[in-house]
Amino acid sequence: MVNRSQLALRDAAEWLGDWHPLAEQLGSADGLLANTPVTALLGLPPVVDLPALRGLLAAYHERILFPLELPAIFSAHKFAGFNGLRELVALDREVSLDAKVRDFAAASRRVGQAQLDKLRPLKDERLLRRYIAAVEEGRADGWHTLVYGVTLAVYSLPLRQGLLGYAHQTTRGFIYASARPLRLSEHLCRQVFDEVAPGLSAGVGKMIAMAPALAQ
After folding, report:
1. Which of 45, 83, 123, 159 makes a 20 to 30 Å CA pair with 129?
2. How far out from the chain centre does Cα 183 lie?
3. What is the CB neighbour count within 10 angstroms for residue 166?
4. Domain ranges of the chain
């Protein structure tokens, strides 16, 4: 039986939809075969076959997911836990300065701000209300990773499961964005995901083990 916490966690992961702000740029044959911002950002050739897709996933995990996105979620979750709006807005600004996010900044803001709109009814969450105001006033951008971390905190969801849920959902986004252009079967998509899933779990476990260092 699925309890309320599990349902909330699934919702927190699935509000990302099927597409990561980078993965959505791969959702067509042109997106895969052309030198898109995704492949250019990661220094990779166009994704034209299964080995290239596996290379894309490895590069995304190594250069974006683990060094940038998951730490941002971790920090946003921490700041939301003690109503640290000033720290959250400072983190938002820090993310905006990272050159690696510029190629998908508009999509990241769109995804994050759409989720903030869904959270508006939670009027009792003071930090959430103030963060939404900061975004509306232009003092923050509402990056999807930061909003995801805040969402985990608002719903009191386990951080480890939240980080892993994000890693799983975004990885699936890349795989399924590539499925139609590359003519990948459902079975093959699941096989590719199963290949990388253990590494995602191990990476998140390592992050949690380093939590005191990340919290500094």
Report:
1. 159
2. 25
3. 25
4. 4-214
Report DSSP state, residue 65.
I
Contacts 24+ apart (CB under 8 A), 13-18: 13/162, 13/165, 13/166, 13/168, 13/169, 14/169, 15/115, 15/118, 15/151, 16/111, 16/144, 16/148, 16/166, 16/169, 16/170, 16/173, 17/111, 17/173, 18/172, 18/173, 18/176, 18/177
Name the pTM for this structure.
Answer: 0.83
Cα separation of 152 and 162, whole Å? 7
Q: Which two tokens stand for residue 42?
A: 């990661």
Mean pLDDT confidence for 81-102: 89
pLDDT, tens digit (0-9, with 9 covering 90-100), for 8-39: 445 555 544 444 555 554 443 344 444 455 67
Domain 4-214 in CATH 2.110.10.10: no
pLDDT of residue 22: 56
131 sits in which H/E element? helix 126-136
